[in-house]
């Protein structure tokens, strides 16, 4: 259980922060940028949920919890040393990736195939889901960049990749099952 009695610690006043293993790194490090962008995604999911109801809201709640798991995963380097840790570090699993894939398939099964690219918008929920998608893509790019120089859980990168797809398909569901999607018209304003 986490207990936060004091919110400010002053330990980051000189531009460093602690990772999950206690190591101190610069706040602008690649790892902090990656999991910070995951946190940003989670905040936008919270905004999307203001417009969500029913099953999609329940799924977004699960995603928010997963995003905290993902942040915990990414703030803990040295995956090879997990067995030596005081407690088992929290890692994203292939099961969480599979759940997203199952939800994507279920949502997409009710939609007409796309015949054009979609512009972000339509309903408020769809617009926020598109913003979730684009920030998730940035988190994925930062995570892939990090993985090129440090150890990163491969399931975490897969999760981000599927999550952006999930947000895309969910945005179509939020737009009256795609009927209210805003379609791109190439060269329309020439």
UniProtKB/TrEMBL annotation:
Taken from the record, one Pfam family name reads Cob_adeno_trans
Q: Where in the cell is it found?
A: Cytoplasm
Keyword set includes Nucleotide-binding: yes
Q: In which pathway does it act?
A: Cofactor biosynthesis; adenosylcobalamin biosynthesis; adenosylcobalamin from cob(II)yrinate a,c-diamide: step 2/7
Mind telling me which Gene3D superfamilies this protein's record contains?
Answer: Cobalamin adenosyltransferase-like (1.20.1200.10)
What UniProt keywords apply to this chain's record, in alphabetical order? ATP-binding, Cobalamin biosynthesis, Cytoplasm, Nucleotide-binding, Transferase
Q: What does the record give as EC number?
A: 2.5.1.17
The GO molecular function terms of this record are: ATP binding; corrinoid adenosyltransferase activity
Q: What is the designated name of this protein?
A: Corrinoid adenosyltransferase
């Amino acid at each position: 259980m986490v207990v936060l009695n004091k919110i400010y610690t002053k330990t980051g006043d000189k531009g460093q922060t602690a990772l999950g293993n206690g190591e101190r790194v610069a706040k602008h490090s690649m790892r902090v940028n990656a999991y910070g962008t995951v946190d940003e995604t989670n905040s936008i999911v919270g905004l999307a949920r203001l417009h969500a109801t029913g099953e999609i809201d329940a799924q977004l709640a699960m995603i928010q919890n997963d995003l905290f798991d993902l942040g915990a995963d990414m703030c803990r380097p040295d995956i090879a040393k997990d067995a030596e840790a005081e407690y088992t570090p929290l890692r994203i699993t292939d099961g969480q990736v599979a759940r997203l894939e199952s939800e994507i398939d279920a949502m997409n099964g009710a939609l007409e195939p796309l015949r054009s690219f979609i512009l972000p918008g339509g309903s408020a929920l769809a617009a926020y889901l598109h913003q979730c998608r684009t920030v998730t893509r940035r988190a994925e790019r930062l995570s892939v960049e990090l993985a090129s120089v440090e150890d990163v859980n491969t399931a975490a990168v897969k999760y981000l990749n599927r999550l952006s797809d999930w947000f895309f398909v969910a945005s179509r569901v939020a737009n009256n099952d795609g009927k209210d999607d805003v379609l791109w018209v190439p060269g329309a304003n020439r």
